[in-house]
Amino acid sequence: MNQRSYAHQVLEYFGMENCAPATTPMQELMVDLNAEPCDLTCYCSMVGKLNHLTHTRFDISTTVGICSRFLACHQQLHLQAAGRVITNIKHTSDYGILYLSKPNTNITGFVDTDWARDMTDGRSTMGFIFMLGSSPITWLLKKQPKVAMSSIELEYIGLSTTSKEAAWLAKLTSDFGLQT
Fold it and tell me: What is the residue range of 131's domain?
């Protein structure tokens, strides 16, 4: 399952179909209080279209989530970062999610946290992904609502959130009669 056609439409919409493809989607983003704001309509349109792609492209969900944080204080740097994601889409337009007709029914979860990485407010980011066999079925990347006082506190928050998702998945799979 991929969104190759939609990815090409996004490239055409922003006139980037002939751009040089970027191999990575991310660049460091900060707020420069002296920088000029960019065109809000263009930036919101880019982030919105990229957000739609994250339904099958969890590899860009981190970058798109970070770009979304700057919708209220958008600057030229942020527009360039969103443009870089689009140039990465050109390089990876065939990426998607493969679901097998007879999948391995083992569910595996992974969680990661990044303590105080955001230089603008000191808040941390956590994320998880659950796989059914080799196919992703649910994932989340979330900036924490409060500043964690230690990496241990952040790990606890991340594991707690992931455990809730694991319990929900266990209930869902048992409702479907799957042996996991």
Answer: 107-175
Residue 101 lies in a domain: no
Residues of the chain under the 70 pLDDT cut: 27-33, 103, 116-119, 180
Q: What is the pLDDT of residues 59-88, one digit of tens each?
A: 888 888 888 888 888 888 888 888 889 988
Question: Which pLDDT does position 56 carry in this prediction?
Answer: 84
Of 10, 2, 13, 5, nearest to 88 by C-alpha is 10
Residue 141, pLDDT score: 84
Spell 130-146 as b/e; 16+ CB within 10 A means b. Answer: bbbeeeebbbbbebbee
Same domain, 74 and 150: no
Residue 114 inside a domain? The answer is: yes
Evaluate whether 154 touches 127 at the Cβ level (below 8 Å): no
Which residue pairs, CB below 8 angstroms and at least 24 apart, start in 40-48? 40/74, 42/79, 43/71, 43/74, 43/78, 43/79, 43/82, 44/71, 44/74, 45/13, 46/14, 46/79, 46/82, 46/83, 46/85, 46/86, 47/71, 47/82
Residue 52 tokens read as 């739609």
Nearest residue to 19 (alpha-carbon basis) of 11, 27, 10: 11
